[in-house]
Design goal:
This protein has a domain of 149 residues: Rossmann fold. The chain is 34% helix and 24% strand. The protein has a six-stranded mixed sheet with strand order 7-8-9-4-10-11, with helices on both faces. Strands 1, 2, 3, 5 and 6 form a five-stranded antiparallel sheet that branches. The structure holds adenosine-5'-diphosphate and magnesium ion.
């Protein structure tokens, strides 16, 4: 089995919080992997460790078969990431920013320019010639971050909540781009709270809860015939929640 992501006992401790506790992930090459978990479960921290944004406290990882700590640059050339906090240079226009990213990846200028125009057209941002990124809406910033993550045609793509703040039309386009990438053998590792999208896109899912991987497998097999939402809530939820837990929804009258 060829893996794009392997982690061995990956752990992250932030001062008082252990965000990720000994994660052993296996993500097969060419799969579309949905990494799910409730708020604060450790999803973003995992992506940050795997993409070199924060160092792991303990443990090891291999991306595309390459050890993370020993050859980080060799890995960074071949991965793309849309991180939680987008980390854009906001005093640039979209075209200036993508030209900069293209240069970082050493793309020939003509290729970078062509890909920039294709990406901007596809994402509905082609008319933003003079607009600085800082003037963009949150959804537009997400789109630019995605364009920057795609411009060098990565073999492995990390997406932290890529659909959050994105309109339905752009979501459709993005889903199609991602599906096309996977059909050509690229690997995608995505976190999303939108389970309907995960169900539509992902071939495999992993669930992290309180920093631990509590389930992992092929989507078609793992949920045992239930909807992803029912399965997810049944393993990480608080059981049946009673709306009478909110006193005023139970018929409280203030006089
Ligand atoms: N920079 C940080 N400093 C301290 N604690 C953090 C930091 N980033 C995340 N955490 C904590 O680590 C845990 C996991 O956070 P995170 O990975 O962002 O979860 P998720 O993305 O699944 O919502 C949370 O308890 C969060 O408060
Ligand atoms: Mg997060």
């Amino acid at each position: 089995m060829e893996y794009s992501i392997e982690t061995y006992g990956l752990k992250k401790v932030y001062e008082e919080v252990t965000a990720v506790r000994g994660l052993d992930l296996r993500v097969e090459k060419g799969c579309f992997y949905g990494f799910l978990g409730p708020n604060g479960a450790g999803k973003s921290t995992t992506i940050k460790m795997l993409t070199g944004i924060v160092p792991p406290t303990e443990g090891e990882a291999r991306l595309l078969g390459i050890p993370l700590t020993r050859q980080p640059l060799q890995i960074k050339r071949r991965i793309g990431v849309v991180p939680e906090d987008l980390c854009l240079f906001e005093n640039l226009t979209a075209r200036e920013y993508l030209a900069f990213v293209g240069r970082m990846y050493k793309l020939p200028a003509a290729v970078s320019l062509r890909r920039t125009e294709e990406l901007l057209a596809l994402l509905g941002l082609a008319d933003t010639h003079k607009t600085l990124i800082l003037e963009y809406s949150h959804g537009m910033k997400k789109k630019i971050s995605l364009a920057a993550a795609l411009i060098h045609d990565p073999d492995l793509l990390f997406l932290d909540e890529p659909f959050e703040g994105i309109d339905a039309v752009a979501s459709r386009t993005i889903k199609e781009i991602l599906q096309q990438m996977v059909s050509q053998g690229r690997t995608i590792f995505l976190t999303s709270h939108i389970l309907a999208i995960v169900e539509q896109l992902c071939s495999h899912v992993g669930i992290i809860h309180q920093g631990e991987l509590i389930a992992q497998g092929r989507l078609s097999e793992i949920a045992g015939g239930q909807s992803l939402e029912n399965w997810f809530v049944s393993i990480v939820g608080q059981g049946d929640v009673d709306t009478a837990g909110l006193s005023w929804l139970g018929g409280e009258v203030l006089r």
